Amino acid sequence: MIHVHSHGAQSYSAKEGASLKAIGVQLGYGRRVILGNVNFEVRTGDFWFIVGPNGEGKTTLLRAILRRLSPLSGKFEYTGDFALRDHVGFVPQSCNFNPTLPTTIREFVTLGTVGIEQRQLTKGDHLAWALEKVGLAGMAHCDYWSLSGGQRQRALVARALVRCPSILIADEPTSGLDLCVEDSLLKSLAELNRAERLTLILVTHDLAVAARYGTHFALVHDGRVEAGPAGVILNPAALEQAYRVPVQVCHEPSGLVNVRIGSVAS
After folding, report:
1. Is pTM beyond 0.85 here?
2. Please, are residues 42 and 197 in contact by the beta-carbon 8 Å criterion?
C-alpha cells in the first residue's frame, strides 16, 4: 500500500510476512500437463523474474499466479498483501482498447483505479507519480492515440502503478521499448523495489536484462520450474540445460550479473 504525505512523497506499507507460496503445484489444461511439481515462495520486497525459452510455460505459470488458472494438483497460498486483490497491480503484454474513443493519457491510466477501494488515495497525486515513474511526466492531458508503441507500453505500466499496489505483476512489460527506455523503466521499478519494498514478478524473454535486476528467478523449462535466489538459478549449468546453448555468466565487482546466451567464455 502507498500513503501520500503532504509533500507528495510515496511510502509503501507492505505487511511483514506477506507471501505467495506454490506447494507441489501441477499446471495444465484439461488432461495436458504443462508444468509439474512447482514449488517456490515469493516474499515481500522480492524482485522475481520468470524466464525460460519460448513455449515452455511462462504464461501458464503467470496465469496461475494471477488465479486465472487453477492447479491440477497442489496449491497456491496467498498471505498478507498477496491475498488482497486490491493490492496487486497487473501489466498485460498489450491492451485491446477501442481506437475510436478519444482518450487522454490521464483517462487511460486512471482506469487502473476502477473497482478498487480508494484507501485514502488522491488520484491526481498518484497519477502524476505513476507517470513520472514511467517517463511520461507532464503528459497527462496528451492524446493517448498520439503515443508511440513504446509510450503506450509505459502507459500500461503506469495504469498498474496508479492503483498503488504492494505487488506488481507484469507480462513482458518492456516489450516494444528501445534499450534506453527499457533500462530507464526497469531502473525505476528496481528503485521502488529497493526503497519502497514493492514486490515485483515480471515475465521476460530477455535473460540478460533480468539478470541485471532480479533478486529471484523462476526458470521454466522441460515441464518444470527451478526457482530460487539469483545466485542459485543464474549458473551456467542450469541455464545451459534450459536454453540448450552455451551460456556465460559474469559476476562484476559491483554486484552486477551479466549473462550472455550463446556465448562461450574466452
Report:
1. yes
2. no
